[in-house]
Amino acid sequence: MKRVRWEGVRLSKKLVYSIILVLLVNVATELILVMLYNLFFSSINHITFTLPFIHLTKFFSTGLVILLLVYRHIHFTEKGKYIFRVLLSVSIVGIIISVFSFNVVTEKNLLKYRVVYPYFYDWEDVDHVETKIYRDDAVARSKNVSRFTPLKVHIKYNIHLKNGASFNAWDNIDNVYELHRLVLNQHIDVQYNEMDLESFVSKYTSDFKEDMPKIKYIFYGVNDKN
């Protein structure tokens, strides 16, 4: 009886450790990648740097850890081993593709890097810029999410190129504020947020607080400093 209880305790500890490891990987993946890329690009005078597929990196990294934990503790049949190898390959390829995909904007050009092939553009290649900000629809909120949980705010600073390509250059408020100044100095057409300014200020002031003047400049071209 004591042996059965001890085995049960061991299994419980393994399960807890496994859950903690999975959560750590999910949370730490973005922080580690951002830190590594900041070190890598520290010598480059960039305005904004974005990882458009960071959510996929977190998904595949978490999936990879779960697969390895399952493989360690469960005995697979030959068919199971084949499926494991397929899922493992998919996870690794997914991590590589998502990690090596990023966007860099500098004063001289724009870089859209995808896996192994970089696309360099000059500012003359930019057709227009689109700024957009919106909040999740309360009606579409998941039933598992409390109605008191703040709805997520989605922010887009989309740079559209003349060849039809585009990417979201949103980094952080300060960096995109500088980017927007550059865009206007380049006399690039800007399609601003559709919501009227008064409603926007009323709806989002609590989200941005002291940064609201910069937000108004980015999404409406209104510069309170002038």
Topology:
Blueprint: H1 2-40, E1 46-50, H2 54-73, H3 78-99, E2 101-106, E3 109-114, E4 117-122, E5 126-135, E6 153-161, E7 166-168, H4 173-185, E8 189-191, H5 197-208, H6 212-220
Parallel strand pairs: 5-8
Antiparallel strand pairs: 1-2, 2-3, 3-4, 5-6, 6-7
Report on the structure:
This protein is α+β, with helices and mostly antiparallel strands and 226 residues long. The protein has two domains: 1-99, no CATH class; 123-226, no CATH class. The protein has helices at residues 2-40, 54-73, 78-99, 173-185, 197-208, 212-220, and strands at residues 46-50, 101-106, 109-114, 117-122, 126-135, 153-161, 166-168, 189-191. A four-stranded antiparallel beta sheet has the order 1-2-3-4. Helix 1 (2-40) packs antiparallel against helix 2 (54-73), helix 4 (173-185) packs parallel to helix 6 and helix 5 (197-208) packs across helix 6 (212-220). The protein is elongated and about 65 Å long. The N and C termini lie far apart (79 Å). The model is unreliable at 138-150 (pLDDT under 50).
User: How many domains make up the 3D coordinates?
Assistant: 2
- The SS-based structural class is alpha+beta
Estimated helix fraction:
40-55%
Gyration radius, to the nearest Å? 23 Å
What is the mean predicted local confidence, pLDDT? 82
Summed up, the helix count is 6
* Strand line-up of the largest beta sheet: 1-2-3-4
Order of helices and strands: HEHHEEEEEEHEHH
How much beta, percentage-wise? Answer: 15-25%
The low-confidence parts are 138-150
